[in-house]
Amino acid sequence: MSKELGPVIEMREISKSFGSNPVLKAVDFSVEVGEVHALAGENGAGKSTLMKILQGVYQKDSGSIYISGSKVEITDTFSAKKVGIGMVFQEFSLIPSLTVAQNIFLTNEPTKYGLIRDSKAKSLATELFKTMEVDLDPGRLVESLPTALWQLTEIAKALAQDAKILIMDEPTASLAKHETEGLFSLIQRLKKKGISIIYISHRMDEIYRIADRITVLRDGSRVLTSRLEDLTPEKIVEAIVGREASAHLLHHDRSENISEEIVLELENLTCGSKVQGVSLKLRRGEILGLAGLMGSGRTELLNTVFGVLRPTSGTISINGKRIRNNSPSDAISNRIALIPEDRRSQGLVLDHAVTENLTLPLIDQLTVAGLLSSKKVLKKSQEIIKQFEIKLAHPEIKVGSLSGGNQQRVVIGKWLATDPEILMMDEPTAGVDIGTKGEILDLVRTIANSGKSIILISSELPELLSVSDRILVMKDGRVSKSLDRKEIPNEEYLQLAIQGAS
Amino acid sequence: MSNQTAFAPILSRLKRFEWRQNIIYIAFVAVFLLFAVLLRDSGFTNPNNLMNILRQTATITVMAVAMTYVIAAAEIDLSVGSIAGLSSVVTAMSISSWGLVPGIMAGLSVGLVAGAISGGLVAWLKVPSFLVTLGMLGLLVGVARWITASAPIPIADQTYIAIFGGGQLGPVPTIFIWVTLVVGIGAIVMNKTKFGRHVRATGGNLVAAGYTGVKTARVKFIVLMLSGGGAALAGMLYAGRLQSGRFQWGTGDELSVIAAVILGGTSLFGGRGQVIGSLFGAVFIGLINNGLILMGLDVSQQQVVRGAIIILAVALSRKK
User: Fold this and answer.
1) A88 has a chain B CB within 8 A of its CB
2) pLDDT tens digits, residue range B209-233?
3) Which residues contact A336 (CB under 8 A, 6 or more apart)?
4) What kind and span of H or E run contains A62?
5) Are residues A55 and A134 in the same domain?
6) Which of the listed residues A191, A213, A438, B140 has the most CB atoms within 10 Å of its CB?
7) Residue A89 to residue B211, Cβ atoms within 8 A
8) B316 touches B20 (CB < 8 A)
9) B197 interfacial to chain A (CB closer than 8 Å)
């Protein structure tokens, strides 16, 4: 790191309030040239507000921003871009119907006599990918690319605009392991070129792997800035949640809560090429973890059990009785519930009130003379809200206005209110902060202790290891390993099993 | 083995071939050949008949080119038919009062102003274009009837009729020159200029386009204003061909225009715009109208078939 160059960004005493609600309180934040600086904090701690001020989406109330030593006023996204700030969005910012090259040079198109030269854009993009050491055909339509390549396109787009600072917000959230590795090595190469990266993440292992320094925000204030080698993960978690890290991530032996009774049995369940001959037994009170890479068939397996996908062969039995789930409503009447991965698109109607979302699967029970009773709906909702400690101002507010953790509680509450015996959850902690994560994991344990059986998919291994009683590793649509929790000595062992090395 | 490897590139090409976007060309050729065989005794392939089809679809084509931009930006304009009617009336009245050039200017301004009002409401007040232009559809017909007392206004200016109607430049009917100009400029601007690219970006992902620096509100304003301008030109072509201005000219055209654009491969959900496809879509609809008439179907039956085609077009445009 070149000390004499000084910080590329220096934000001094930035404050911002929305109405009477202070979101940032005199926050200092600086990034050196060629540094990867991790930014951490719970949802609502002020990370995204701070970054949006840097990008010109929000205006600061007070404080000052220096870029490479000179004071700048960032009034909108254009001026942010002009001073070299590029953003790799969590929610992708590409136009699906345009090609990779067209996206990279959008608003920056090379022209001749007023006409765009797509061939020139394409060769420039090819050059760019070459310097990034990435193999990607710039002529392809973005909508035809897998997620990992969308992200690379976004990075290329930022670099094409001569960004000196890249802001990456949870960039690995939707990447498989090897894609994450690719991203990390790209970050290393960018660093060498003197590009600074602000890396927002909830994942401790990633922060340790690639970041030089970390800044933690809590309740709008900066509570920690330090080089990572001077810090233990416990210290970081403590800074984030503001209390000693609780025991959420410790595994508890729950064997006394698991009965011998088999609740769900799958025999040779097959669904196209995605699920191939999966057999498993789930006992009452058991938490069964499903591990595997993206595309290993975990989600498809749950979808097949839930009746979203139709099995091509094999059987599903509940309490020893063979059943057929031709649709999710069959599965619900067989007392199975599925909490899908993407709660925004599959689990909730964000624009509808919390009450409407909570009672959607229960609607048949909440009628008077065939018409929906709003009194019953409200009463039932309040019961669920209380039971799952959903924090909200009023049960009639839109779900979309709740925090990620509370949204997830609404989803879980909604499905548990149908009183399922078997609850399947696909990445229940994706996109929530550490504090909420722990609460969700505790909730999962409580649900299982009450005699329900749970199948849980998670790509975060510490999490999977902390709650599961048994872990099935899936690969290419098959169960490649079935491991009792006690047989797994550590995370590396499970990681190797997933990669198929052992 | 060698066979497989030889076919692999062709197969992957076939897989990548965008059926949805190119179906219009296949359908066009298929229907043309079908009619050519079925109606060979009714004079379908007679050059005069084919010329007539092109002449009659010219107005739809002009509006469809502008509508391609509106739909590519994920908006809609239902007022094009009414703008055409009002523009024909205003042109006719202005020519008789003030002469040729003021007449043309007045007719064109009607469309640009109406489009700018819709565009302003959509772009800056965020009123959905469906509602704004639905309101405009009724409003503008009302204005056209009001100022003419529902009566046709004849046009006697022969220069106007020559330029916008039945005239010829050498062997080429002027109406074809208009169509060629509009389609040519429309296609180049859509595919080769920043503006066209920004229209597709706005329709493809509004938020992303905004963050990237595309002025999305301005794009929406301009496409609706252009659509008004295109519709006004179409109204003036009606006035030239029919030698009068009348509020009915263009009535109901919005449906044919939208159908032509969607058939041509532009996505109703925005992000894609195929100007040449829209030309073929418009002529395709003309082809079918003409064929149905030659087959002896009456107006009501034609309406049924046209309606079915529109449903088919929209069904084809659904998201994958």
Assistant:
1) no
2) 887 778 899 999 999 999 999 999 9
3) A264, A305, A306, A318, A325, A420, A421, A422, A424
4) strand A62-67
5) yes
6) B140
7) yes
8) yes
9) yes
